[in-house]
Amino acid sequence: MIRFLLLRLAQIVPAFIGVSLIAFAFIRLVPGDPIEVLSGERGIDPERHAELMAKFGYDKPLHLQYFDYLYNLAQGDLGTSLVTRKPVLSEFASLFPATLELSIAAMLFALVLGLPAGIIAALRRGKPTDHILMGSALTGYSMPIFWWGLLLIILFSGILQWTPVSGRIAVIHYVTPVTGFLLVDSLIAGDIDAFQSALRHLVLPAITLGTIPLAVLARQTRSAMLEVLGEEYIRAARAKGLHPWRIVLLHALRNALIPVLTTIGLQVGVLLAGAILTESIFSWPGIGKWLVHSIFSRDYPSVQGGLLLIALCIMAVNLLVDILYGMADPRIRHARE
Amino acid sequence: MDPSFWKHFRRSRGAFIGMIVVAFLVLVAVFADVIAPYAPDMQFRDALLLPPAWLEGGNWSFVLGTDPVGRDILSRLIYGARFSLFIGLIVIVLSLCGGVLLGLVAGFFRGGLEVVILRLMDIILAVPSLLLALVIVAILGPDLFNAMLAIAVVYLPHYARLTRASVIAQAKRDYVTASRISGARNLRLMFVTILPNCLSPLIVQATLGFSSAVLDAAALGFLGMGAQPPTPEWGTMLADAREFILRAWWVVTFPGLAILITVLSFNLMGDGLRDALDPKMKRA
After folding, report:
1. What value does the mean pLDDT take over residues A36-63?
2. For the segment B275-284, what is each residue's pLDDT rounded down to a tens digit?
């Protein structure tokens, strides 16, 4: 198992170097050199320009600049935001819990509906129920989520007035941050009103963001279940006269979950990309909205840092999924050793 | 192509419907000048934010209503079909050509070159597609062509990996060895002997990729990083109309519906193609 872990860690290294190269190159590829970008529209006199170029090390050869960049990275220095003048890492860290809370809620929404939908569709294969469920799943999969979010706003915030249009919590509430998750923090503080407000703000963005993972999960669960249900051991279990639900939920689902687990891992990238759109629609104060805003305000160090950190998150999750996968299915672990 | 292909494709009702809708969209795009009641940028100052014709206050000369500056929404949607299909086509051609070339080289020559290409593709895959596209557009500047280029780059790895896998499988076959013994050079082996036999999965991926390209281009347009107003691109139209959502639902609803229908029909077609082209998936 340790060998397997080390092997997987070693495989990540090239990808990490690649992503750090992209992030490093990014700020040098945008039109204008970094100092011009930093000084913005006002411009800068040539003498000061040269001085700053030397101060930040931009006059060194590129490969040395890259090593400097890695050296700073290792110390947790991802540069400073041009807009807020705060370190990029602390900006990211302060916004990340909001995105994480939203993503977890979206994933829960997808799991709670997607798994049963996939199982039922597999059991009713070829019947109308299957067609309806898979038709809906394909529609969900094809959904432009930025439009879906707007539609939900029109219906639930506009016509029914059940939910607020944007934000994370009503401004009258103040919750002392402990975990950064407003739902948890408001409960810790014992503030039920704040909890309700946070929940009402969370529902629509979570549904919007969870729709595509929901569709993917339902389709994946269905095909994994179909594959497993055809196996000999299922027939054996049936022959033993076990209760049908026991067979489906215990014998079949457990094995069908292995490919589904990978799908969940792959959805993390989808979630983070979706968060960019969802957070922009609902003014959700997370990293997605922050990144779009940073790109628009030409806050390139923030974009650079955000790019790297998001790629790191995705790599970490994929590694985690691989490890879980190896624990769930010994064949995989041994095949790779 | 497999003669039973049509039989399998037509058996799937969804795929057939998808194909008909796609054909319809192509016709709409080609004959936009003839079909559209008005030019996409024509403004009617006395008809701002008019609701669809069947609602109170609607007017049958503007069937789907008008937008905040008095342009006919139906006409803009019709012209928008041009943009969406054009975007999908260019993105697919770019990423398919690039991906096939990379995959062919990687799968045929193997060795160090293969490792380099695969690692490069891994790097692209490590960043969420929309984020990478956003970053590329940030470097190149926001306009429609740059958005297409960015999306094409993001989809490269899919085609490269798919091509490589099938090339490796085909290269071991006897017919390739036979061709090599009869004196075929590498280029001929790659493009004439092997490539045609790797096309099935690529066709499926290209069809499904078309829908993703349309979706991503619309998303970039929505974020203001794709086509710029007043281009009647569907995502850009949505972004334009956002502030009016609670006052005039139709300016938001119809462009999104157009995107959904386009993406859905390409996905239906792609699913059907996969079932028909992939022997493993064929229904017994």
Report:
1. 75
2. 777 655 444 3
A189-197 contacts at long range (C-beta below 8 A, 24 or more positions apart): A194/A169, A197/A169, A197/A170, A197/A173
- Bridge partner residues of B62 (DSSP): B59
Angle of helix A2-29 relative to helix A62-74, nearest 10 degrees?
130
A206 touches chain B (CB under 8 A): no
Q: How many helices (H) and strands (E) does chain A have?
A: 15, 0
Q: Of A18, A144, A307, which has the smallest distance from its Cβ to B218's Cβ?
A: A144
Can you say how many angstroms the Cα of residue B180 is from the centroid of all Cα atoms in its chain? Answer: 37
User: How far B260 CA sits from the closest chain A CA (Å)?
Assistant: 6
The gap from C-alpha A233 to its chain's centroid, in whole angstroms, comes to 37
B80 touches chain A (CB under 8 A): no
Q: Cα-atom radius of gyration of chain A, to the nearest Å? A: 24
Give CA–CA dist B203/B228, Å, rounded.
31
A161-201 residue pLDDT tens = 888 888 888 878 888 777 888 888 888 888 888 888 889 99
Residue B50 gets which letter from DSSP?
P
Distance between CA atoms of residues A261 and A256, nearest Å: 9
pLDDT for B269 beyond 60: yes
- pLDDT, residue A177, reads 79
The residue with tokens 């054009």 is B86
pLDDT at B31: 92
- For B62, phi then psi, to 5°, come to -125, 85
Q: What are phi and psi of A87, to 5 degrees?
A: -60, 140
* Beta-carbon separation of A277 and B218 below 8 A: no
- Which of A103, A146, A208 is the mutation pick for testing B, counting most B CBs within 10 A? A146
Calpha distance A121→A116 (Å, rounded): 8
Residues 6+ apart with CB under 8 A from B252: A147, A150, A151, A154, B238, B241, B242, B244, B245
Instruction: Compute the mean pLDDT over every residue in chain A, rounded to the nearest whole number.
Output: 84
Per-residue pLDDT at A8: 75
Residue listed under structure tokens 């997605």: A288
Residues B274 and B281 sit within 8 Å (Cβ to Cβ): yes
In whole angstroms, how far apart are CA A5 and each of A51, A73, A128?
Answer: 47, 24, 45
Q: Identify the CA nearest to B129 among candidates A277, A140, A323.
A: A277
Give the ipTM: 0.85
Query: Which residue of chain A has the CA closest to B283?
Result: A126
Alpha carbons B117 and B121: distance in angstroms, whole number: 6
**Segment A289-317 mean pLDDT:** 86
Structural contact between residues B113 and B106, judged by C-beta atoms closer than 8 angstroms: yes
Instruction: Identify which of B10, B9, B2, B14 has the alpha carbon closest to the alpha carbon of residue B268.
Output: B14
pLDDT of residue B150: 92
Q: What is the pTM of this model?
A: 0.87
